Give the backbone structure.
Amino acid sequence: EKLAMSGCVSPHLVVVLIGDDPASQSYINRKEAAAKRCGVRSTVVRLEAEVTEAAVISEVQKRNVDPDIHGIIVQLPLPAHMKPDRVIAAVARNKDV
């Protein structure tokens, strides 16, 4: 809030969650609360467990080119049909958190 009022850019974090793993959801809830306390905007992109790896990579790439997004986290674990290295590699280096 103070950042926005001072004219500074408020950082924006995006977390990509695939599936509905309870432990991952709990972890993301804590990330959202911590971001709020720090004045960081956070968005969770929730995708079904059956989504294709290509669709996940496409979602990540959309966020890579969005100048309003400053950081991206792909929440692990990923569904068994995905290769984590490929999905994580899709995150732009300057936005990898």
